Predict the 3D structure of the following.
Amino acid sequence: MFLLAASFITTFAQDSVSKTKLGLYGSIGANYSTYESLPAYWLNIKGGLVFNKKFVVGVGASTLYFDRNLSRLVNDGTYHVEAAYSGLFLEYLFKCTNKSKISISWLSGVGILQYRYDKEYRDSKEWYQEIIDRDSFVANDLSTEFLFKISPKWWVGANISGRLSSPVKIKSTDEFVLRRMSG
């Protein structure tokens, strides 16, 4: 099942390293999403090498920002959901005009989803009791992005993407909670 996601503004810089067509790539972005039907955000970062101003290879990571106190699973405090994944990505850049590009990207990696007691309830627990439940997952993030040049080496863009993940086995949680619509 492939879900589409539109993100907020993403920026990246591309700079030449030598006379060969090798450059540096960096990207910071945020995607609106939901977690169990409530608003959430995925914060993303990527870095890599650009070959011939078209092909990018690098590493990327995403973390879930879901700032809600939850209490459904416990009766001795509140907890937060924490999720993050990282991996390698490949990206291809299509030049549209001198001031615009379209990119197609695929990030594949592994991550962790966990429920962790809030800080005020962790103080009374041993370190191994802070986590209520945890599971790892595999994520594949496919995206298309439109980029617009704002200065010689800086671009701003908006993307649409879909995240596929392996099932997660967490207490009272849908196995495919990470496949929810983002946009």
About this structure: Residues 1-9 have pLDDT under 50 and may be disordered. The two ends are 16 Å apart (CA to CA). Residues 119 and 159 are 35 Å apart (CA to CA).
